[in-house]
Amino acid sequence: MSARAVWAVFARNMDVFRRYWLNNLVSNFFEPFLYLLGMGVGMTRYVGGIDGVSYTAFIAPGIVASTAMFAATFESTYGTFVRMEFQKTFDAMIATPVNVEEVAVGELVYGAVKAAIVGVIILTVVEVFGFVPGWHYSALLVPPAALLVGLVFSALAMTASTLVPQIDHFNYYITLLITPMFVFSGIFFPLEGLPSAVQEVAWFTPLMHGVRMCRELIFGTWTHVWADALWLAVAAAALSWLPVILLRRRLIR
C-alpha cells in the first residue's frame, strides 16, 4: 500500500470539502449548537448541576464527541455511497495506479479528519460562549480524541456502506445503532443512574468512551482517559480492515 496514493485519495476529498465547506459545516454546526442552547441553557434552570458542574458544562463535552461521531457517520455512509455508486468516483480512482485498499484507507482517514475538524469547531464554540467556564489545559487534546472517535465511526459507517444495496437502507443503521448510542452514552445524564445491564452494554459502545474521554480532558480529571483512548484505538484497529476487504468485494466483481 502506497502512502502517496492514500494521500491522493484523501487530498481529493479535502479539495471537494474546501470547495463546499460552508454546506458541509452548516448541518454539522447548527444541530449541536442548538443542543447546547436548548438542552444546556434551557434545562440548566430546572436540572441544576451534575457532578459539581452546571448542566450545560456537563453535556458540552459529550456534544463535542457526538458531533465527531455524526460527522464521520454521515460522511462515510451517504458521502461514501454517493462516491461509490452514483458518481463512480472509486471506479475512476482504481482505473489509475491507485488500488482499492488505498481508496478505502483514504476514505477512512478523510472521515476521521472531517470528524476532528467539526469537533474542533464545536469545541471552539463551547469556549467562546463560555459553556464550560475554567476548563483545563488538557482540553487541547480533545481534537486528537475527536480524530480517534471519528476513525472508529468512519470504519463502522464505511462497513455499512459496502453492505447496503440502496442508500435508503442507511436509515436502519442510523436509527438502530447511532441514535441509541447518542442517547445512552452519558451525554445528557450520568450512566451510573441506569441499571447495571444498561451500563455494561454502554461500555461496549465507542461513543461512551469518546464522551467520557472528552469530558475528562476538558475538566482535567484524567480518571479514564488512557483506558478510553486504548479502547478506541483497539476498536479502530479491529474495525478498519473490514471496509477495506468489503470494498474490494463490492468493486471488483
Characteristics of this structure?
11 helices; 2% strand; 2 strands; globular; mainly alpha
Compact description:
The protein is built from 11 helices and 2 strands, in the order ααββααααααααα.
Question: What do you see in this structure?
Answer:
This protein has one domain (3-251). Helices cover 77% and strands 2% of the residues. It has helices at 3-19, 21-47, 55-86, 89-94, 100-128, 142-163, 170-183, 196-203, 206-219, 225-239, 241-251, and strands spanning 49-50, 53-54. The chain has a two-stranded antiparallel ribbon with strand order 1-2. A hairpin with a 2-residue loop joins strand 1 (49-50) and strand 2 (53-54). The two termini are 21 Å apart. The chain crosses the membrane at residues 21-41, 53-74, 108-131, 137-158, 170-191, 229-247.
Give the helices and strands, then pairings.
Elements: H1 3-19, H2 21-47, E1 49-50, E2 53-54, H3 55-86, H4 89-94, H5 100-128, H6 142-163, H7 170-183, H8 196-203, H9 206-219, H10 225-239, H11 241-251
Antiparallel strand pairs: 1-2
| Domain module count | 1
Report the total helices. 11
Any idea what the shape is?
A: globular
SSE order: HHEEHHHHHHHHH
The amount of helix comes to over 70%
Averaged pLDDT, please? Answer: 89
Tell me the major beta sheet.
2 strands, antiparallel
Which percent band covers the strand fraction? under 5%
Widest beta sheet: strand line-up = 1-2
Distance between the termini: 21 Å
| Strands, total number | 2
Rounded to an integer in angstroms, the radius of gyration calculated over CA atoms is 18 Å
Low-confidence stretches: none
Q: Provide the structure class.
A: mainly alpha
